[in-house]
Amino acid sequence: MEVIKRPPVVVLLNFLIASVMFLMNAPEYTLFYYINSVFYIVFFYLFVALLMWVIRGKFFDGVTYSFRRFYSKVSKQRDYLEEWKEKPLPSDTINHSWLRMFFFHGSLMLIAMLLLLAIYYV
C-alpha cells in the first residue's frame, strides 16, 4: 500500500508495464505501437475510475436494494442471522482515495499519451 501513496513510483511502474507490453506485442518497434501500449494502460485506469465513479454516485443502489428486498420476500430459505437491510450498498463500498488514485493516474497517463501523439504527428 505504501507504493500507492507515491505517485511518481506508480507512474514509472505504469510506463514500465507499457514498455514490456510494447516489447512483447509490437510487430515492429515504432512510436506508434508504443503509444498503443500506453493507451491500454490509460484505458484500464479510466475505465475503472469511471466505473467506480458511477457506482459511488448511487446509480446501482436502488436496483441492489430492490433485488435484496425481492429475494428476502420470495426466498423460502430464511436466514434470520443475515438481515438484507443492514448489508452495505454498492456506493458504500467504494473508497474515495482509490477513486482519486485511478482518476489521477489515468489522466496523468492520458496527458503523457497525448504528448507522445503530438510528437508522433509533428
TrEMBL record:
Stored InterPro entries: DUF3899
Entry keyword Transmembrane: yes
Protein name per the record: DUF3899 domain-containing protein
Pfam families xref list: DUF3899 (PF13038)
Transmembrane segments: 7-25, 31-55, 102-121
Keyword annotations from UniProtKB, A to Z: Membrane, Transmembrane, Transmembrane helix
Domain (DUF3899) ranges: 35-117
